[in-house]
Amino acid sequence: MLTRRHLLTALGVTGIATAAAACSPSGSSGGSDGDQKTLTFRLWDDTAKAAYQESFEKFSKDSGWKVTIDVVPWDEYWKQLSLDVGSSEAADVYWMNSANYVQFQQSGNLMNISDVVKDDTDKWVKSVVDLYTRDGALWGVPQLWDSIALFYNKKLTDAAGVDPTQLRFDPAADTDPLRDAGRALTVDGAGKHPGEDGFDANSRSQYGFNSQADRQAIIGPFLASNGAQWEDSDDKYAFATDQGIAAFQYMADLVNVDQIAPSAADTNENGDFTRDLFTQGKLGLFQSGPYNLKNVADGVAGSFDWAIAPMVAGPAGAKSLVHGVTAVGNARAQDDKIEGIKKLLMWLGSADGQRPLGEQGVAFPAHSDAQGAFVDYWRGQGVDVQQFITATQDPAPADTGAKANAGLTAAMPIFQEIFIGRKTAKDGVPEAQDAGNDAMK
């Protein structure tokens, strides 16, 4: 399974390195392997490798092209890719995320998918297609996607009388269903709840909700659900509005005032802290994505019943972030590989090409006809994942600028200061917006 939060965002994922993870694809790929022509395919997550191997076996039989897979872990991926692109040694086809593709597209390194793949494109998840459409063309073949929903501990929510399907927030209200549910689910060592006399936040044994500086699962959805923009049409940050400031203060207050979320001293240092609390049975509500399905299933291991509800909605509704990984074609590949690259991209865009990703429970395939395989996989595990599909119907915009990584890297430390309570949202949000925009110049 794709292993960390922010899998598809700028602050991404960690993969598991294979022995050849750091190798340039040029070291293992020539134009042919004996009598069989060879292509290279690069990705950043080792756990998706087996699914692609299964897919490429069928492709090779049908096309005559062999595909070798190169896994480079996230921490090295973008640096290595830049080096390989600069030396004309990039893989023939490689994984790309929405926060990075624009810089490669603008420099002429990506094939125009609109010219390559003609069939079944209407079957790809529209929100992913939109992410990778720029200058009137599509620049990657959608492969997999994730969205946001709400994991909940049935034992805890039942005991607290909380209905996870009815949770909403409103920064302008004195109280709301999310804060009420969070108080009911948060318990200190003496069994007291926030707001009760003698409640000791330092002895909490159980928490209500995972409010934290998580761009994909918390910050993005809460901003959009409160009517705030993330960026404008010029790819500049635009979240320092009244709605954006109110949303940030609300999220921080869940930690520091309402005391229903763990301290940011823990979550700023370890973004998986709340996920681990959930699997330990110490967190009632955990807003996250399908990238944590296997982590949750393996961590809970039958110790309590859990399920998935819609993400928490705000005044503007429920606005999930939807991110997608695409496969991009190397526009500067050797001439004798161009035909094979185009065939591989067409295969990767097909339901048959993507189905192993679903059948092995790796992720939601981007082709609608293959998504049922992922749904069936999790149904077999006793988990209904429909809420993630529903969340794609009205998503919030995601990062797409050429320097989105630089912007979020500059803004995130300031977001963390807001969550830990050292800055107010009124002061910190404009500061974060300016820092991010300065970094993206």
TrEMBL record:
Subcellular location(s) of the protein: Cell envelope
Domain of life assignment: Bacteria
Signal sequence, renumbered to the chain: 1-19
Keywords: Signal, Transport
InterPro entries reported in the protein's UniProt record: Bact_solute-bd_prot1 (IPR050490), SBP (IPR006059), TAT_signal (IPR006311)
Major subcellular site: other
Family from the record: Belongs to the bacterial solute-binding protein 1 family.
Protein name (Swiss-Prot/TrEMBL): Sugar ABC transporter substrate-binding protein
Organism: Brachybacterium huguangmaarense
